[in-house]
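DM from R.C. (forwarded with permission)

"hey, sorry to bug you on a friday — could you get me a structure for this? deadline for the figure draft is monday and I only need the backbone to look sensible"
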Amino acid sequence: MLGPVILAASRSDKMRRLVSAAPMTKPVVNRFIPGETVAQVVPIVEETVAKGLELTLDVVGEDITTPEQAAHARDAYLELIERLKELGHGTKAEMSVKLSMFGQALEGGHELALANVRPVVEAAAAIGTTVTLDAEDHTTLDSMFAIHDELRKDFPQTGCVIQAYLFRTEADAKRLADAGSRVRIVKGAYKEPAEVAYQDKGEIDKAYVRILKILMEGEGYPMIGSHDPRLIAIGQELARRAGRKLDEYEFQMLYGIRSEEHLRLAAEGHRMRVYTAYGTDWYGYFMRRLAEKPANLLFFLRSMITKN
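My reply, with the result:
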């Protein structure tokens, strides 16, 4: 069970220094994170849209310790929105944000995160696109959902993420599957205790299907976040049974993972959105990608062994 070990390492400063210093880390990181600046990610946006795909962009960085850092994160997204305005792709390029990056964990963090994310959501709406609030560990979710509810009063297109491995998520899905909602379902990528989350992969997969069925039968817009071929096929079947048209739901996958599947789904007429992260504070994001799939870890280790 390497996943929990890697997730624990994602919170370790010692491991952060070790991994960051390894000579071959950066080339492998580039597989999942194609740039550190807006200028570097703009060509990726153009290339992805030209292939008939869509994107959600994430400025990586979660270890915020001061209000000034949170404000800097806000400004990084506002800079991104200015560049997206120039590109004019509308909802083909939207954004995902983690509220921890906007100061959620600081003193008065709920109000601070709401104050920082609101101008980002407002600016996104002004250029014809939107923002999705990413889910983080279970202790942050009540705050995230409350901020999501508040933002939707003025910006109803604001999306959120739910995680199948949490026991609470079926109830959350029923509440969220209303008209106009946009909900991304993922398995979950944080180390969670057995008191709040399924630990067995089979149980997580079953929960994912139950929750996706709720979303498909609801009145909102489901976003299927998975690379699992079986869950993708089940998602297609659930959409068919619910009578959904191809533009009434979408698939989402990570940049750098199963890229040929991105193109296959798009060629079949599905909306396929690529979750594309960029930025300098990549460590936590990168380690969770390794934890999600053993093949990613093997790819990383093999690269370090063969190219050192």
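R.C.: lifesaver. Strands lie at 54-59, 93-97, 131-133, 159-163, 182-186, 221-225, 250-254, 272-278.
me: no worries. The two ends are 27 Å apart (CA to CA).
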